[in-house]
Structure formats: structure tokens, C-alpha cells
């Protein structure tokens, strides 16, 4: 599966949450790409890399921009899988009701991202996945990950060609 992770913007702070999600999905053979929500060429990326799913990491200050992005992507790519996580969906899970999303994840997504995306792509049931909300069900949050060492190292290759990170020795 080809997954495009979309964040609000690049800054001097690495998007570590998305880098963890990418590491987890790459560890089972999926490919990862990254873009910012302000980039007008997201449809071009989707076509070029044959993206199967878009994962959005949303801060509340960027909610309007991401809402518009999800609506525009749904219009242009009606069958594209769209999932959101991050602070905004966690604190405002009701967005699943009105946004053009297939699912949202509350809290940490590292342990649920792979089965969630794979099942969405296969059209399978998601109702047993904790911390996942869809338009038809709302599952309770999951416990926090006790042992962060159980996760793969963050995927630094994901941002390796993006300024300011490409100028940093990794």
C-alpha cells in the first residue's frame, strides 16, 4: 500500500508522530510519502505515486485547512482512503460526522495504523479496533503504549529530502 502522510507544515521540528507511523507501516512492507496540507500538488502526488491512503495529522489551528483538503480530495478521488489523527481528532472526535473521512484515530495511532489502513483498503470490518471512530461506530480510546522501545525507530528517510532536514546529517 502507498500511504501519503499529510501534516500542517514543515518547521525545524520533525513531525515525529508521522515518522513513527511511517516506520510502523514500512516495517510491514508499505511505502510512505509526506506532504503538507498547504501544498497545491497533493493530487499530483496521489496520482504519481498511486497513493492508496492519506493519513492526516491535524493540529486544531489547522482544522479548517484540513477540512477543506478532505472535502476536495473526496471530490477528486472518491475512493481514496482518508484517515485523520493527531490532537484535533483526539479532542474533537465529532469531526468524523461532518468531514469527508473514512475514520479517525484517538490518541496514539502506532498500534492501530496498519490494521486500520489494511482493513479499509480491503473493505473489511473495523469495529473491533479500539480508538477508531467512523460514521457508524465510536470505539473507546486505547491505553497508551507502555514500552516505546517496542516501536521501530522513527522513519527519518521520510523527511530526509525536505528542508530543513536534508541539510542535517542523519
Structure description:
The structure is a single chain. With 170 residues, the chain is of the alpha/beta class. 30% of the residues lie in helices and 16% in strands. The chain has helices spanning 16-26, 42-48, 63-76, 87-91, 95-98, 113-122, and strands at residues 2-7, 31-36, 53-57, 81-85, 103-105, 132-133. It has a 6-stranded mixed sheet with strand order 2-1-3-4-5-6, with helices on both faces. Strand 3, helix 3 (63-76) and strand 4 form a beta-alpha-beta unit. The two termini are 26 Å apart.
If you average the pLDDT, what whole number results?
A: 89
Number of helices, where a helix is a run of at least 4 consecutive DSSP H or I residues: 6
> Any idea what the shape is?
globular
From N to C, what is the helix and strand string? EHEHEHEHHEHE
Main traits of this protein?
alpha/beta, 6-stranded mixed sheet
Give a quick precis of the structure:
This protein is of the alpha/beta class.
Task: Chart the SSEs and their pairings.
Layout: E1 2-7, H1 16-26, E2 31-36, H2 42-48, E3 53-57, H3 63-76, E4 81-85, H4 87-91, H5 95-98, E5 103-105, H6 113-122, E6 132-133
Parallel strand pairs: 1-2, 1-3, 3-4, 4-5
Antiparallel strand pairs: 5-6
